[in-house]
Specification:
The complex is a heterodimer. By secondary structure, chain A is mainly β. Chain A has no helices and eleven strands. In chain A, strands 2, 4, 5, 9, 10 and 11 form a six-stranded mixed sheet that branches. A five-stranded antiparallel sheet of chain A has the order 1-3-8-7-6, with no helix packed on it. In chain B, a hairpin with a 2-residue loop joins strand 5 and strand 6. In chain B, the strands form two sheets. In chain B, strands 2, 4, 5, 6, 9, 10 and 11 form a seven-stranded mixed sheet that branches. Chain B contains no helices and eleven strands. Classes of the chains: A mainly beta, B mainly beta.
Chain lengths: ~110, ~110
């Protein structure tokens, strides 16, 4: 199956710090998606990327689709306690199917 | 709109028992999915459906069955529960599938098999 590597697995930061996480794939894809899962809930889409080199922001979140089309990163600036959760990258691997990375667990200390 | 609704929220099963996890959506989405989430392992696709009457296997279908008799409902059946099926199960739906249409997830069913 498709190899999708997400790092880091977990992060512990202080409120106000910036955060960066990334994903790499073993093949080239046309779509990168970033989801966030709040504790006890299902994931919610944060940002979708459709073009190599594309840089997209959503409030304090910024994501980029790598030029090689094999990687993507997500940055969170000036973190706040409600940023706590698990962040997943995701790829459209075939037809209507999405493959998810293993997630980055973010903890923000006030 | 309620979105995607999953029931029950929690369940404990004994080995060998069976159960059905219910999932219903009120957004008239054609595409529906079942994922399982194990700690530190992300989301693995079990089964999916591109419309009523059509289902297909995902990455980890063994031990599960699904049906899609209506657009709204996509139940997941466990026939002979095993400890390896202890997990959190998420149902999701989307309008057109793939990466062009966001997945809407339910809040999950936490299943323990002992």
């Amino acid at each position: 199956g498709q190899q999708l590597n997400q790092s880091p697995q977990s992060m512990f930061i202080q409120e106000g710090e910036d955060v960066s996480m990334n994903c790499t794939s073993s093949s080239i894809f046309n779509t990168w998606l970033w989801y966030k899962q709040d504790p006890g809930e299902g994931p919610v889409l944060l940002i979708a990327l459709y073009k190599a080199g594309e840089l997209t922001s959503n409030g304090r979140l910024t994501a980029q689709f790598g030029i090689t089309r094999k990687d993507s990163f997500l940055n969170i600036s000036a973190s706040i306690p409600s940023d706590v959760g698990i962040y997943f990258c995701s790829l459209e691997t075939s037809g209507s199917r999405l493959t998810f990375g293993e997630g980055t667990q973010l903890t923000v200390n006030p | 709109n309620a979105g995607v609704t999953q029931t029950p929220k929690f369940r404990i099963l004994k080995i060998g028992q069976s159960m059905t996890l219910q999932c219903t959506q009120d957004m008239n989405h054609n595409y529906m999915y079942w994922y399982r989430q194990d700690p530190g392992m992300g989301l693995k696709l079990i089964y999916y459906s591109v419309g009523a009457g059509i289902t297909d296997k995902g990455e980890v279908p063994n031990g599960y069955n699904v049906s899609r008799s209506t657009t709204e409902d996509f139940p997941l059946r466990l026939e002979l529960a095993a400890p390896s099926q202890t997990s959190v199960y998420f149902c999701a739906s989307s309008y057109s599938g793939g990466g062009n249409s966001p997945l809407h997830f339910g809040n999950g069913t936490r299943l323990t098999v002992t």
